[in-house]
Amino acid sequence: MTTQDEKEVIEVGIIGMGDMGKLYAHTLQRAGWKVNVCDRPENYKSLSQELKGSGLNVLKDGHQVSRQSDYIIYSVEAAFIDSVVAQYGPSTKVGAIVAGQTSVKAPEKEAFEKYLADDVHILSCHSMHGPTIDPTDQPLILIQHRAPDEKLRLVERIMSCFKSRYVYLTYDEHDRVTANTQAVTHAAFLSMGTAWKCSNQYPWDSGLYRGGIEMVKINICLRIYSNKWHVYAGLALLNPSAKIQVTQYAQSSTDLFKLMVAEKEEELIKRVFEARKGIFGWEDEEEGEGGGQRRSSNRDASEVIITRRKPILMSDKLLDRFNFAARKAAQLQAANGHGGGAGGEEDHDGEGRREEEKPQPPNSHLSLLAIVDCWHILGIDPYAHLDLAATPIFRVWIGVCEYLFRSPVRLRESIRAALYDHDFRSDDTEFIVAARGWAQAVQFGNFELYQQRFEETSTFFEPRFEEANIVGSEMLKVVAVPSP
Ligand SMILES: NC(=O)C1=CN([C@@H]2O[C@H](COP(=O)(O)OP(=O)(O)OC[C@H]3O[C@@H](n4cnc5c(N)ncnc54)[C@H](OP(=O)(O)O)[C@@H]3O)[C@@H](O)[C@H]2O)C=CC1
Ligand SMILES: O=C(O)C(=O)Cc1ccc(O)cc1
């Protein structure tokens, strides 16, 4: 049967028409598949109204979707997966394939095994990007858990319209990898946000946060806080591996901070440079660089260089580009009468210099030193994850860490600032408290506590979300596409 013939007979079903469900439903429908969708029964009327004329077949509930679809994707909150599959799973059409979009797979696997009859296949998925990112070239994880190869081929044909890059993992591999890539990365950005909120100061107002790395920290942090808390809570609290990573991140931050306040210079340098060698492979005073093995053909060579060892993800030029995007967004925001700040300061200082020409103040960059230390202690190779399940945010995160660590001069400046520049002490103190607080929230597994922590900070930053999302999108666009 050709794919065109398959489109006549195969029906795709989506249960949960939130952001990801809608992205999937519209993309699949545009590719010519018949798509049955539903949200909660109480949303049936409003959803039917909203999707009138869209070509999507809106049904009342998950029973109806399950009974008539050949490939069903659950796209609901991770915390609800058990109860939703318990409800609709028994209605699944005989021989159908069932998948979940859930960001954490342990509860999904358990629910599918518990509630799905033996005559249905389990072949799950996870798009490694948010609903506003172009799925082209992004990793799309496929998990062939209980299904023959012919069903995998069918799923590949159906999903080909996303133009994503298939990555084949088991359920358990998925959770280990995403704990390393997503959970601990989010913990770092969530901690920055909480720390700034507890200092009761927007970082762009204090004058301490200028320059490309700062732009990344601020805008990605705000991007995360502008999203739905349940996505981050689910993937951290329900992933058995996430506790280890997030706890170590808080521990690494604390250990480094203690060396900083005690001004133990030698010990701090030793620890940071050991982590540098372990993660990036650069010897003590060696300037990390590509080695020029192979260059990406469709990019500026200074932006992405494929090396024998590791790709270089971030350059001065890219960071400058972020600064530029940030200034543009700030101007736009100011023009719209909303102030303007998360994107950077005015174009010129009193001396007529453009922002990027002003000397950049040194920064302890504790959050970056801590993540590299954390990867090193846990034996995580972040580069190995680039080919597997890297989200755009994770790529930006490795990129800025690599940028800081690449130059021994830059790294030593940061260590010096950490030890002797007390301007950052109070923010770093808040950061430690925040990192430990987030680690506890994950250890306790308490959704309410997580939601409360998340919302307290997101409310603080809300006025700047629009601006930060413009800049954040620009950053992710530039770094997001995996190197060929
Ligand atoms: N957002 C992201 O960046 C990504 C999210 N994911 C994962 O995808 C899944 C969906 O996320 P996302 O779309 O962002 O979240 P949303 O909150 O936007 O969507 C979830 C939808 O499922 C609905 N729902 C809940 N219970 C039922 C039910 N019994 N029957 C039908 N629908 C139901 C929700 O309704 P209600 O709001 O009333 O509860 C909501 O509309 C999550 O598991 C998430 O982890 C994966 C990749 C990226
Ligand atoms: O890139 C990130 O880490 C995001 O924040 C977006 C995201 C959230 C949840 C997922 O399951 C996949 C991607």
Give a description of the structure.
This is TYR1-prephenate dehydrogenase. It comes from Violaceomyces palustris. The chain folds into two domains: 3-168, Rossmann fold (3-Layer(aba) Sandwich); 176-479, no CATH class. Helices cover 55% and strands 9% of the residues. The chain contains 20 helices and ten strands. The chain has helices spanning 3-9, 19-30, 44-50, 62-68, 81-88, 106-115, 149-159, 171-198, 212-225, 229-237, 242-261, 265-280, 316-335, 366-378, 382-386, 392-406, 408-420, 425-444, 447-461, 465-480, and strands at residues 11-15, 34-38, 57-58, 71-74, 97-100, 121-127, 139-146, 165-168, 294-295, 305-306. The strands form two sheets. The protein has an eight-stranded mixed beta sheet with strand order 3-2-1-4-5-6-7-8, sandwiched between helices. Strands 9-10 form a two-stranded antiparallel ribbon.
